[in-house]
Design brief:
By secondary structure, the chain is an alpha/beta fold. The chain is built from 12 helices and 17 strands. Strand 9 and strand 10 form a beta hairpin. The strands form 5 sheets. Strands 1, 4, 5, 6, 7, 8, 11, 12 and 15 form a 9-stranded mixed β-sheet that branches. A two-stranded antiparallel ribbon has the order 2-3. The chain has a single domain, classed as Alkaline Phosphatase, subunit A (3-Layer(aba) Sandwich), CATH 3.40.720.
């Protein structure tokens, strides 16, 4: 009798839970599900592992590798021994041939109560030096841009891994249900490109949302497809409601699936962003004084200044991780030759906007729980390349942090007397990542995601929190 009952092939496949769509969806959901229970809304705010000092991060990425010995790490012996051979061995692996020692073309002075050294490249930022925590002993593993950029962003220089911003989004969610947790403004498309803001094997909802790219002026940097000129918002709402009804119907047969619910919520987020995101991007309501503070009245500083002002607005709006990239297709910070002109051009473009950002965050009470992070993928060699330039140097370089629970006015770690190698209190990239996560209330060893049979984390199997820089 059973075989005489009428049932369609489609119903048979769906009801027996072996339909190709069900199998594919179940496989995708299983792969995306983390070890812990996924909340219905994957972007919902989540409690940190322990009380956090920072709620959000603004990463000011100086693409190409600024020279530490020309910006924040003066070396008197480098000046004294200009033109002489380096008195110890160079690294076994180097990016390009180099010659003798090359002194800095710029003078340094001590500023503020901390007495921290800053070169004349950054006169505006020098006035904010008491808010900076300068880490002079960073070191990495890769002398090539591609690997080093990936390492800074993902913790790995040779595998595709989730970006740090994606890990932060995964760990904490967003403070604003109408915005993504991770935004990257004018990111570079070179040396890793989208992999630098990708969620990789984390669910796609944690991927960074790019505004333009490095080849697009910041006043034209928008999220793609944020508006639909051909379909009215009311019609879009009806379409989305119909799609949700179909998905709920599927759930009624397949059972509740947190990862499918997360996908449904991602559609809702995209819809809500149409109202919220343009409002955050619109700078017309900012006072003339504020725009001047960021250098938007000067064509030299306007482009980067606008990016920094947008970063502040995203921070105010509840975005967890905001990246601002200074890069262009011609100069960047990669001065293999003509160090003086290249670094001076770059510094003029970013000095005032960064100082303005710090001042503005502080005046608004945001610097206390916003961690500002500045740096490139590596530093530069103290020895010359092409006579008047410097080669890549991952062996020792400077980054700085500000706000968000770090010790202000601190100079931590050192490089050797010429600035080639990290020497005292060395800080690996994994250590820096562990420290930033700690400031956000996240234990880097507990922030894991199971993929391909293994628990992954941003710091892989390494990393120690640098507790000496914590306030």
């Amino acid at each position: 009798m059973l075989f005489n009952q009428t049932i369609s092939r489609r119903d048979l496949l769906a009801r027996s839970a072996v339909g190709f769509g069900s199998l594919a969806l179940a496989s995708l959901c299983a792969e995306a599900a983390p070890v812990a229970t996924v909340p219905t809304d994957p972007m919902a705010p989540r409690l940190p592992h322990f009380p956090a000092r920072a709620k959000r991060v603004i990463f000011l990425f100086m693409k190409g590798g600024p020279s530490h010995v020309d910006t924040f790490d003066p070396k008197p012996l480098l000046t004294r021994d200009d033109g002489k051979p380096l008195p110890f061995a160079k690294p076994r692996v180097q990016f390009a041939p180099t010659s003798n020692l090359l002194k800095s073309p710029w003078s340094f002075k001590q500023y503020g109560e901390s007495g921290s050294w800053v070169s004349e490249l950054f006169p505006r930022l020098a006035a904010q030096v008491d808010d900076l925590c300068l880490i002079h002993s960073l070191h990495g593993t890769n002398p090539a841009h591609g690997g080093a950029v990936l390492k800074i962003h993902t913790g790995s220089d040779n595998f595709i891994r989730p970006s740090m911003g994606s890990w932060v989004s995964y760990g904490l969610g967003t403070e604003n249900a109408n915005l993504p947790a991770f935004v990257t403004i004018c990111p570079t498309l070179a040396h890793g490109g989208i992999n630098n803001w990708s969620s990789a094997f984390l669910p796609a909802v944690y991927q960074g949302t790019p505004l333009g790219n490095a080849s697009v002026p910041s006043d034209q940097a928008k999220v793609k497809y944020i508006s639909n000129g051909s379909v009215a918002r009311e019609i879009q709402r009806m379409q989305l409601d119909r799609l949700n009804a179909i998905n709920r119907e599927h759930q009624s047969h397949s059972g509740p699936e947190a990862s499918l619910a997360a996908r449904i919520n991602s559609f809702e987020l995209a819809f809500r962003m149409q109202n919220e995101l343009p409002r955050v991007e619109d700078l017309s309501g900012e006072s003339q004084a504020t725009q001047k503070l960021y250098g938007m009245d000067d064509p030299v500083t306007a482009n980067f200044g606008r990016m920094c002002l947008m970063a502040r607005r995203f921070a105010e709006a509840g975005v967890r991780f905001i990246q601002v990239t200074h890069s262009d297709s011609k100069v960047q910070w990669d001065q293999h030759s003509d160090l003086k002109n290249g670094h001076e051009k770059n510094a003029r473009e970013v000095d005032l906007p960064i100082a303005g950002l710090l001042q503005d965050l502080k005046a608004r009470g945001l610097l206390e729980d916003t961690l500002v992070w500045w740096g490139g993928e590596f530093g530069r060699t103290p020895v010359a390349e092409s006579g008047n330039g410097r080669d890549h140097n991952p062996e020792g370089f400077t980054m700085w942090l500000a706000g968000g629970g770090v010790k202000a006015g601190l100079r931590y770690g050192t490089t050797d007397d010429y600035g080639y190698y990290a020497a005292e209190n060395k800080v690996h990239i994994h250590d820096l990542h562990a420290t930033i996560l700690h400031l956000l209330g996240l234990d880097h060893e507990r922030l894991t995601y199971r993929y391909a049979g293994r628990d992954f984390r941003l710091t892989d199997i390494e990393g120690n929190v640098v507790r000496d820089v914590l306030a």
